[in-house]
Structure formats: C-alpha cells, structure tokens
Amino acid sequence: MQPITTSKERIYGLDLVRAIAILLILSSHSTILIFPDSELKSIKFIQFFGTVGVDVFFVLSGFLIGTILIKHIDLGYTKSQDLYRFWLRRWLRTLPNYYFILIINIVLLLCFKKKLPEGIYSYFYFTQNLIEATPSFFTESWSLSIEEFAYILGPILLLFIAIIFKRVTKTSFLVVTICVIIFFLITKIWLHITNLGMTENFNWSHSFRKVVITRIDSIYYGFIGAYLSFYHSKFWRKINKLTLVLGIVMFVSIHFYLFKSALNPNAYLLFYNVFYLPLLSVNILLFFPFFSTYKSKNNKVVVNISLWSYSLYLVNYSVVLLTIKQFIFVSDLSGFNKLLILLSYWFLSFMLAYLMFNYFEKPILKFRDRNINA
C-alpha cells in the first residue's frame, strides 16, 4: 500500500496559515506574561485574537485530516484495518509530543512543590475537558482533546456506514460531516437552553469554548473545505479571491461590532454559546480556497515556524511562561526588564520547540512514515 500523504506534499499557503495561527497565540500569551491584570482595550484586543489562532488550527486540522480521509475513500481504503492505520499515523503525530509535555508538566509541578490536580489520570485519556470546564493545569491540552475525539468520531461513523452499506462514498463523507455539525450545534443550543453548568460564576471561555462536546464541530467545518477542494477543485480555485474578500469583510464586521458594542461573553451567552463559534469557523473556512491554492516561493522562516508550531503550542505556555512566572514577579519590573523577559519568553519558546521538533517529533514521524504507509 502506497502512502497517502508525504512530507514533500506541503502547501506553502497552509504553512503560512499555521505560522500566523501560532504567532497569534504567542502574542496573546505574551500579554498574559507582561500585562496579566491589564484592562486596556489594546491588550484585550491582542488576547482575544490570540484565541482565534486556536480556531484557525481547528479548521486547518479538519481540512488536512478530512483530505486524508477523502483520499482513503477515493482509493477504497475503508476497511477496519485501513482506519486503524489512519488512527495509528495520526496518534504517532500527536500523542508522543502530548504525553512528553504532560509528563514535563507533572515533573515541574512536583519540583515547585505544588499539589497535583485531582483527576490527573484524565489527562492520559483526553477526558479532562470532555463535558466539564477545562482545568487550570496544562491548559493547552483542551484543544488537543477536542481534536482527538473529532478524529475518532468521524472515521467510526464512516466505518459503520461501510459495515452496513458495504461501501463508503464521497456522499457518505459529506453526510457524516453535516450530521456531526448539526448534532453539535443542537448540543450547543440544548446546553444554552438548559443553562447546564452556567452558574453565577460561569466562565464562558473555560466552561464552554474549551469543552469537547461544544467544540467538535469546529473541526468538521474543515472537512467541508476538504470535500469541496478535492471533489470540486476547479470551483474551489475559481472562488479563492472572492471568498478571501468575503472572509475579510465578515471577520472585520463581526469583530468590529463585538468590540464597538463591548459584547462580553458572560453577558451575551446566547450569541456566544450558539452563534459566535460556528460563525467564526465558517469565517475562517472562507480563507482556505485562497491559502490552499496560494503559490509562492517558500519562505524558510514561515515553513520552519509551521513545522515547529505543534511543539511551540505545547511548550510556550505551561513550560516556559508559567515557569518564568514561578520565579519572577513580572508586574514589579521596569519597562526595560519586562522587554527582556518578553524576549526571553519568545527565545526559550522557539529554542525548546526547535529542539523538540528535531530531536523528538521528527524522528518519530520518520519512524511512522517508514513503517506505516496508509
């Protein structure tokens, strides 16, 4: 069986999207480090758009993994052993880094003589934020839980279709994708109507935005993009500039209104719980016809940031930022010293990501590509 994807098939436009997303996240975390208690609108603005970086990753991941699943379907690789190989390749991409950083977080907590959180075992099964608010320990893990469950759910549904109907088609893929999106949209509505867990101290970001059962659909908007780009490639390329303009207009319009009207999530739960996150995912998807077909001479810096992005995401906050805060009370420093801390944060994050990618992540990926070809 020939490999469905290889590392040589990189699309520069998507590398650019990935680099932008991780830089948004790092910028947001920078404000948390240097201005933790600031109420300035400019700081809140940076923090808010840092969170959008994670949503970009969701749609991007859905687009890439959806394309791989479509290629499986197109080649007839829809038996249980084929999906097992799909999962195995995916898990070798995500799990080693995740568990490595999880263990480092546990060791750091013990070194700082702090108590391990209750239910620490749940982190090993990605259930720490399945239906409840994401814990304060290893907070980056919330998005990885959502992705892992999303990548289990879709293939399982496709496997059921293969067992029942003896075959899986492109229509099956599209129907499953739409059904998953609709189901989790209904879940959002139900949670909002029942006010489940929305107490007086309800924190929308931790208790809704970062919970698996409210966010799985974010991945599947990327699946829709994968379907259109694969089966309707001419149309996908034809509309790339139009959707880029529509995406910019939609993004600016929504967020200009949010900031102008000061729509706080906890005060406008109906909008944020039911409408905002799906609208944001659709908005991000509008940029993909342009970036997935964008051709340019590869910029080495952009490609490297893209390659290191997963490691950067895992190390920058809990390993680097929180360790700095453990030893230095940044709020008491002068402006110049704050700048030095900020530069140190970025340098350490990139240095550790570089080391992790080259000496841990990359060897595992090479092992995977040599031994698991589906």
Automatic annotation (TrEMBL):
Domain Acyltransferase as annotated: residue spans: 11-356
GO MF terms, alphabetically ordered: acyltransferase activity, transferring groups other than amino-acyl groups
Please give the start and end residues of each transmembrane region. Answer: 12-34, 46-70, 91-112, 149-165, 172-191, 211-230, 242-259, 271-294, 301-319, 339-360
Pfam families, per database record:
Acyl_transf_3
Keywords from the named record: Membrane, Transmembrane, Transmembrane helix
The Gene Ontology biological process annotation of the record reads:
polysaccharide biosynthetic process
Quote the cellular component terms of the Gene Ontology held in the record.
membrane
Q: Which InterPro entries match?
A: Acyl_transf_3_dom, Acyltransferase_3
Which domain of life, per UniProt? Bacteria
The molecule here is called: Acyltransferase 3 domain-containing protein
The organism of origin for this protein: Neotamlana sedimentorum
